[in-house]
């Protein structure tokens, strides 16, 4: 818009309350006049983005003869004697100027505009597409109407919202900040890309239960609820894995799901109690094939968002997701970084002694938990490029097949990108006898106070006993995938994150 007002300070609570009272009175006047404050519809013929695309470069003072009807939210407003200006914003952030003139709408309509219209209102204008004297693409209104009266004022559009305000009032964030709108579009592009890549490999998308009688599929503390209808305790799912594997048993040999998981754990820059998760399983695949697929999924998603494999984060940093990603051994990389000689047979006491010496604390320590914590201490911080960390301890991976050639480890990888875990993949354990043994060991850990240990699931074991083909599986957080592509924290990638 050509005529902008001087930036104003943020309103106090008293000023907001006063504005609300004034706007409520205007609402009453609109309703009493018969025009209404929230009409059911108006004669829209086009959109702001369509007009901007049709007329990208009009000369100053140009006319088009093109009469349109469009709507938008007022984000700038200036009223003068015989001519009023408003910047109308569409949902994607594009703007166009509306000009309300005495010559076009008449004295009564112009006065009603001045008296009843405020910043934040949604309005409809119909008139000719022109260019102002300063070259601003505009609608010279012949008619106008309020389509939704805003009772509360917008925040100051010239200052940044605080991080807390962004997540608590995301609707305002979307109105005022392009990055917020971009992130929503990027997330939609990522989900569409994931589904397209899976379709290209013959996968079927399914939905599995979020309310479960037994929580399983991951090591995590669940949320607990109660079903009045069944008079039983239920859990919000921590993972869809055990149901997706049932689908593979039933003959859906390539299956995936994108949906919500819930884990009753801490929240920080990379963790949210509620998050979107992708899981996929492929009969007659293994963890190497799932690593190949995961790299393809991530790279296709990066292309969908940024047009290439070198992505630009929100802070301007460029990050390269291209090429074939490194695959390193957990045990070997730990030994190289620490100077230790840890093997899958290293006693717990020896690992515990070293952890104590460097201040690494491990609750309910087992061989596997100690190895993983030591690995994070020595290796994780130095991973810059996307990297698959391969071959994990058996006791921390109860759903994974034993390694085909290395005793004491399983065929599992974790993918690290930007220094955090983005995805995990397995050669799946499909032997029901060994799976039962693993569940029993997990039950022992649970009895010792491990809130994240898995429970013995007889129905899942019964499904395995009907025969599950050798399979590969993978899981990846959608929110974290957005983090890898955009450089944002997890609360920025979730549209409406949980806050206290």
TrEMBL record:
GO terms for molecular function: lysine-tRNA ligase activity. Binds 3 Mg(2+) ions per subunit. Mg(2+) 2 binds at residue 421. Pfam families: tRNA-synt_2, tRNA_anti-codon. Its EC number is 6.1.1.6. Mg(2+) 1 binds at residues 414, 421. It catalyses: tRNA(Lys) + L-lysine + ATP = L-lysyl-tRNA(Lys) + AMP + diphosphate. It comes from the Bacteria. Its main location: cytoplasm. Keywords: Aminoacyl-tRNA synthetase, ATP-binding, Cytoplasm, Ligase, Magnesium, Metal-binding, Nucleotide-binding, Protein biosynthesis. The keyword Isomerase does not apply. It is found in: Cytoplasm. Coiled coil: none annotated. Its cofactor is Mg(2+). Residues 187-497 form the Aminoacyl-transfer RNA synthetases class-II family profile domain. NCBIfam families: lysS_bact, PRK00484.1. Belongs to the class-II aminoacyl-tRNA synthetase family. Homodimer. This is Lysine--tRNA ligase. It comes from Antiquaquibacter soli.
